Amino acid sequence: MADSNKMTIILFSGEMDKALAAFTLATTAASMGIKVSIFFTFWGLSVLRNGGMLAKKANFLQKMFGFLNRGTKESLPLTKFNFAGAGPEMMKLLMKQKKMASLPELFKLSRELDVKFIACTTSCNVMGLDREALVPEVDEMAGAATYLGEAKESNINLFV
Amino acid sequence: MEGIQPNQTLDCVGLYCPVPIIKTTKKIKEMKSGEVLEVEADDEGILNDMPAWCKTTGNIYEGGEKAADGIVKVYVRKA
Questions:
Q1: ipTM of the complex
Q2: Could you tell me how many CB contacts below 8 A there are between chain A and chain B?
Q3: Cα–Cα distance between A64 and A51 in angstroms, integer?
């Protein structure tokens, strides 16, 4: 049975705008008493990367890939108007002027509200990431079955 | 609002969704059942968001109003 008090979000994208949308909904749902899990997969893992580290056993290709995809939650690109990083900096400045919560702030808030973070192990393996390469806040390293198990019990399931 | 005596006030002027709702959640946790929280904001979306938050969390929405200066006040009674 779906539990009206549970919600899952798959964060597949690694752009700041999309991550902001996911974290806005996660923190709001959690403050409404809804149990929230975010399943970070593929580009979405950038939000969890610990200062651009890779797994110690990452091979050459993974290191190359990690270098090209070197964002963390503090330095993600935008979906549009990225302009080699100028866009996100303008966006952050605008958000600060307007006193909007930044992604790192929403990330911290979501932890205070007990939002669960699950990192997709398959994507981690492909990208040369392991538990040590991710921030300490990650609750679980898991796969599709874990996500589907949670999604089946939830009645709000979003893919961002 | 006539007749409502807030026990506490939360200043959310200048803050955008979802921060006022999250601040309300934290504040309500510290309050006693039956007490009323007044939330001041200038993001008028709160006039829709606060009743929705109350409906989901079981707290009581006592109403809200928008003043001429654009400041919105909403009232939540802790269940």
A1: 0.71
A2: 34
A3: 16
